[in-house]
Specification:
The structure is a homodimer. Chain A is an alpha/beta fold. The first copy, chain A, has helices at about 10-25, 35-40, 45-55, 65-80, 95-100, 135-145, 155-165, 195-210; strands spanning about 30, 60, 65, 85-90, 110-115, 125, 130-135, 150, 170-175, 190. In chain A, the strands form two sheets. The first copy, chain A, has a seven-stranded mixed β-sheet. In chain A, strands 1-3-2 form a three-stranded antiparallel β-sheet. In chain A, a hairpin with a 3-residue loop joins β2 (about 60) and β3. The longest helix of chain A is centred in the N-terminal third of the chain and has 20 residues, at about 10-25. The two termini of chain A are about 35 Å apart. At the A-B interface, α1, α5, β9, β10 and α8 of A face α1, α5, β9, β10 and α8 of B. Chain A binds a DNA duplex (22 and 22 nucleotides) through α3 and β2.
DNA sequence: AACTGTGAAGGGCTTCACAGCG
DNA sequence: CGCTGTGAAGCCCTTCACAGTT
């Protein structure tokens, strides 16, 4: 099949498949059918086959998918066969939590530097990573071959932070600020909006729900 | 129009509209057209009109929407005209960051209690909120009229934590654990998956991208 | 016999285009 | 005249159902 454009919902599911395959590998399973994987992921098996078919023919008819081979393929497809370096803008609670979580590099991403404007924070460390003055953002990003940036600054500062990140040549950005941001042509901006997620729960509680549960039991 | 079932993408956009209206109110704007709001949100104006039309006729033809009135309506629709109490399961970096951020209750949500199994943490405070023994989850939730729970525990413990939360009668849950979870019939489970978001960036960098930017400039 | 890969159907969300109204 | 509210079209994603393969 090999579709021309892969949608984001598809790549997000690939991440999920990879994680489930890691579990299966740990359990010692050698092969898995789309039906079984679908049960684990709470998805339709055709969905899984279609997603995988975008990238090649990984399965064996009558048998299923070889766990190790599919795992390796998904890693390659997602670009996870090497560690990516991250810079975090904002050394507040959230930025620090992320720095801590991704400090080791064991999760495929390694935080190389955290940035802040607060002089009392600069020079300290979070999760073993140094906090730098945001003025040095560009030079440190370039020196460290950093490819991914996280926006963990207050909403008011988010747009200018984004522009600084883009100016430093970074093209992949994860944003936690709850504001609409405008990114350039060749930049991928993913926003994680906790307030929206919570407000969505509030709406559900208000009664309009029994809405869309993720994985009905 | 008043659709029977409101989709999650719609309610998520309502959150966004509300936030933008707050900004407009702060600026002192009295009314706003769907076109103008669309520009601010980087959306199509028909989208906005359709979303709002699900809940009533809030606009004035030829004029637009009155900022204050629409703000009040959106708050009511989203159930944000009162503060919701939250319990956080897991007093790690993430749980603590969230407790800190939502401690005051000024954002429409108030963290009332944080829970952990680690005895060295129990009794301490994060963001002014006490960390309790997870054994007391149900009783504290009931005593505190807590309606929303956050899962901020390691992946391995997520499913059992979810079941504990459900057993305590909570029906609205925000999950940060990167595993497929199975929730009951009348429970709303929203998952925020940071690893998937990052892996999606990795895929983009791999070259398959120029994919879907959120807000092309 | 079992399971993958896929054309076709189905369903939902977004955008267009314009009727309707202030 | 200007902007909302909305039927219809368009597009995309998911699911079905089965042909194809080992």
């Amino acid at each position: 099949m090999r579709a021309e454009r892969i949608s984001e919902v598809t790549t997000n599911r690939l991440s999920l498949y990879l994680r489930c395959l890691n579990e299966l590998a740990l359990k010692g399973d050698v092969s898995v059918s789309s039906e079984e994987l679908a049960r684990i992921c709470f998805l339709n098996s055709a969905q899984i086959r279609k997603d995988l078919a975008c990238f090649g023919e990984f399965g064996v008819r009558g048998v299923g998918y070889e766990v190790e081979a599919l795992r390796a393929n998904l890693k390659r497809i997602l670009g996870l066969n090497r560690v990516h370096s991250i810079a975090i803008a904002g050394a507040g609670r959230l930025g620090s939590a992320l720095a801590d979580y991704y400090a080791g590099g064991g999760r495929g991403f390694q935080v190389k530097a955290v940035f802040d404007i607060d002089e009392t924070k600069i020079g300290r460390k979070v999760g073993g990573v140094e906090i730098f003055d945001v003025k040095n953002f560009s030079s440190i990003v370039k020196k460290g071959n950093i490819e991914v940036a996280v926006i963990a600054v207050p909403a008011e500062a988010a747009q200018e932070t984004l522009e600084m990140i883009e100016a430093a040549g970074i093209r992949a950005i994860l944003n936690f600020a709850p504001v609409p941001l405008s990114a350039g042509e060749n930049v991928k901006l993913n926003t994680v909006d906790l307030s929206t997620s919570l407000e969505n729960l509030s709406f559900y509680l208000k009664g309009n729900g029994n809405g869309s549960r993720v994985h009905p039991r």
